[in-house]
Structure formats: C-alpha cells, structure tokens
Automatic annotation (TrEMBL):
This is Cytochrome c. Keywords: Electron transport, Heme, Iron, Metal-binding, Signal, Transport. Residues 1-21 form the signal peptide. The keyword Iron applies. The keyword Glycoprotein does not apply. It comes from the Bacteria.
C-alpha cells in the first residue's frame, strides 16, 4: 500500500508549482532546498545506475530502497518552484522552464511515472538485472530530459 501511495505521489512531481510556497520560503532558501533535494536524487540514482551498468553488484532490494527514497522526496520539489525563485542567481533553472511551464511539468510527470513503475517493479519477486536495466534507464532518461532542456550547465 505504501509503495502505491509513493508511486502516486511521485506522479504529481512538479504537477503544480507551490501556490503558497512563497509564503513559506524565501526564494534563496527555496533554491538551496531544491538543490539539496537534487543532491539526494543524484546519490540515489547513482547507486541504481551503477547497478544497471554492472559497476555495483546488483541488489533488487537496494534498488527498491533507492527508488522508494526518490519517491518520498520527489513531491517536495513542488514547494521549491515558484516565480520568485526565477531571479535567484544560484538557480540553475533556465528561463525556458518559466516560459514553458507546461512542458517542464510534463517532463516532471514523465519522470514520476517512470519512477513509480520502477518502485512497483522492484518490489516484486523475480525483479532482476534484465528487468531493472530498462526501468532504471527510463528513470534516468526522465532526469536527462529535464536537464537537457531546462537546467543550465
């Protein structure tokens, strides 16, 4: 039940920007918070990607743990994207995200769907490297799709 709830919550990733988030966070703090969340994303995805590439020994339970971790924190990103953050110097979000928010949110939802599918698949018996590779690849491709279009290098 928890895994399904996490998967559903993940589908809402960036589904709506924080309406009242500006009342909760100063823009600079929201950007720092966002970047911290993405650091956790990177660490979790790095382990899963390493397993998919054979650089780290495959462990289905560990992939499920890492994917579930991402599923728990992904919805927190919605609080960090509000218009006042667009002018924060430390932000790596390109202006194109603000001018094409529908596509930006769609990419977040694509990532969320892939992550939800990975969480679900990795929780089942028989989840193996052959099954893991495309599922992890879809999650990482979801990250890349947003980075390519909306993250400054």
């Amino acid at each position: 039940m928890l895994k399904k709830a996490i998967a559903l919550a993940t589908l809402t990733l960036l589904g709506s920007t924080g309406v009242q988030s500006a009342d909760l966070f100063k823009p600079e703090d929201a950007v720092k918070y966002r970047q911290a969340i993405y650091q956790v994303f990177s660490a979790q995805a790095g382990v899963m990607g390493g397993m998919a590439q054979g650089k780290i020994d495959f462990d289905a339970a560990e992939i499920n743990k890492r994917a579930t971790n991402l599923g728990k924190i992904a919805p927190m990103l919605g609080d960090t994207y509000f218009p006042a953050t667009r002018d924060v110097k430390e932000s790596k979000l390109k202006a194109a995200a603000w001018s094409n928010m529908e596509d930006f949110q769609s990419k977040g939802q694509t990532f969320g769907k892939a992550l939800g599918e990975l969480i679900e698949a990795s929780s089942k018996p028989g989840f193996d490297l052959k099954t893991a590779r495309p599922a992890i690849g879809a999650v990482l491709q979801g990250c890349k799709g947003c980075h390519d279009d909306y993250r400054a290098k």
